[in-house]
Amino acid sequence: MYTDDATYSEYLEKMNKTLSSLNSQFATVRAGRANPAVLDQIRVDYWGTPTPINQVATISSPDPRTLLVQPWDKSTLKPIEKAILASDLGINPQNDGSNIRLNFPQLTEERRAELIKQIRKYTEGAKTAVRNVRRDAMEKFKKQQKASVITEDDLKGVEKDLQQMTDDYTKKIDEATAKKEKELSAI
To answer: Is the dihedral of CA 113, 116, 118, 120 positive or negative?
Structure first.
């Protein structure tokens, strides 16, 4: 079995990174409640350098539907506001001169459908990445078999293990997707 075999450790690590990346992408999808992670992908032009918002401001959630962005340097208020408006967040920032407030409205059915479509796109990307890891691993082991490093029987066992690994991670991806879709539907 592949779980405790060092032969597959680099491929397991790559598949774990794919799953972690998917979960990070899911965190950026706003689900009706205020979550600071929705701002993670937004970059602010800070002295000519695209910088993540959380590196130029404090982000807090005073209530379940509001995010409060408090820039450390007041001169970054306008660039932060501009970056949020330019993003696909779909929320108008309210600038009070010292902070930016983001009020998250209830999701409409149309917006919910868009978000589910976006989640499924992320899911397909993750599944493709997992399949690419399997393909790369198979190519490596086939080269080893051609070079007589491993036998044909070993190759068949490796192929079976890699397929099992791929199936396991695909299932984990599907579970994460179902959980996020359920979260979106419950709002």
So the answer is: negative
- CA nearest to 79, candidates 88, 69, 66, 89: 69
Q: Which residues contact 78 (CB under 8 A, 6 or more apart)?
A: 95
Count of CB atoms situated within 10 Å of the CB of 131:
13
Which tens digits make up the pLDDT trace of 21-49?
998 888 777 666 677 877 888 888 888 88
pLDDT tens, residue by residue, 62-113: 887 888 999 988 888 888 888 888 887 777 888 888 899 988 777 778 878 8
**88, two tokens:** 């696909």
| CA geometry: angle 134, 140, 141, nearest 5 deg | 90
At which residue do the structure tokens 């397929």 appear? Answer: 163
Residue 171 to residues 31, 45, 86, 127, 168: CA-CA distances in angstroms?
Answer: 23, 39, 35, 10, 5
Whether residue 2 is predicted with pLDDT greater than 70 in this model: the reply is no
- pTM exceeds cut of 0.85: no
Give residues with Cβ within 8 angstroms of 98, minimum separation 6.
70, 74, 77
Q: Are 101 and 94 in contact (CB under 8 A)?
A: yes
